[in-house]
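Hi P.,

Sorry for the delay on this. The queue was packed all week, but I finally got your sequence through. Input first:
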Amino acid sequence: MSALPIVHCLGLGPGNLNLITLEAWEILRGPKRVFLRTSEHPCVKEMKRAGIHFSTFDHLYEKGESLEEVYHSIADLLVEEASKWGEIIYATPGHPLVAEKAVSLLLRRRQVQVILHPAVSFLDLVFEALQLDPVEGIALLDAGEVASGNLARLEPRLAMVICQLDSRDLASDLKLTLMEIYPPEHKVKLLLSLGTPRKKVVEITLADLDRKDCFDHLTTLFVPPLAEEDIFDFKRLFSIVAKLRGPDGCPWDRKQTHETLARHLIEESHEAIEAIRKQDWEHLSEELGDVLLQVALHAQLGKEKGVFDITDSLRLIEEKLIRRHPHVFGEAKLRTPEEVIARWEKIKSEEQYGSSAMETVSPDLPALLYAYKLQTRAARLGFDWDRVEEVLFKLEEELSEIREIVEKGMGNLQDEIGDLLFSIVNICRHLRVDPEIALFRSATKFKRRFRYMEEVCLREGLSMEELSLEELDNLWEESKRWERE
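Then the structure:
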């Protein structure tokens, strides 16, 4: 079996010729064909003086629609050239494994053997310029990836080195992304032309990042970590809750159990719902924080008991979302909300094989919502009226049964009224009206009109208790006219 073609991947270092390794220089001066990722490097002039012949891939940057496309094209061409010549050299700026996507792609190709030759990285110059020990923790990121809005890669507790910040437009996009987490006045450092006599470190605020005109392929941004008190994320929330529950924590928080906290979870959820009804978005933001606190407290209790922690909760909900959305994370094709719901229920029933469809509806829900969900589950399994007119007939039948009990004074009135309400919920479902919202709106309307009646009585010195039913009814009709006007 013939040997695979060989690609020697070496780094030119981050600056002038004195930063390239002796091994790399000797390989470059050898007989093998040399390919450079780019001619934009301080060593290139010295290579020309030494009579080293090379080809570059600069032309691909002009033709490619994206950097990803350029890197794939470079890897393809290197495989092609290695197959033609048997053994070639691919030289990159800095270290061949640091911020070099084409080399990463090449390492996955089975058609060639890749031999790596270590080099001085631009990171070595970054650490020297900042007098930074990387063991304290750093994150190395690509400016383009962060600028695209990938907040998941940002870790404000670590120092960040963001490389390849080569244009002012990119700096502007990067600034907007960073300001989602960091304050505008956060001090950052621009590292310019490291490895050359023009090297410079400029400290500015994040807000001023795109007001400079100094960006090229040698520009790197250093973002220092935030102080813990300036970080607002899930990790800090759970650490605060753990401290509240700790030996030196809050006596009230330490006393709580899942059972004592249950009502608070319901109360905070209802307050969030009230903010939604009022469309008070600022208040909703606060109330959602209160709901999250209840989640964090229950997760901490589970961790203390050794039965689960927040990681388990996150894993379960993430796995469930992916599993129940095959049309997003898989190959399924679903185009309407109805198709999505039907598929969701099918997957859910498969997960809970053997259990009743009714058992998955919590009896702790408000009664109207509980009835609505039970009916919906039954309808999805085919147990439902075909037309709303049939449900209206059932409503009249339930109302007749109540009349009969009232007239004869015999029968279970509570059960029959419950059946009447259940039929009304069924009508709401068929007409796609949320019974909770409908009842709440009517109750709010009643409250508003009754308040009008109270204000009229107060203004005219009347006592509602002393007015006749006819007079109260006249006031009620007046409140309706006032409301319309």
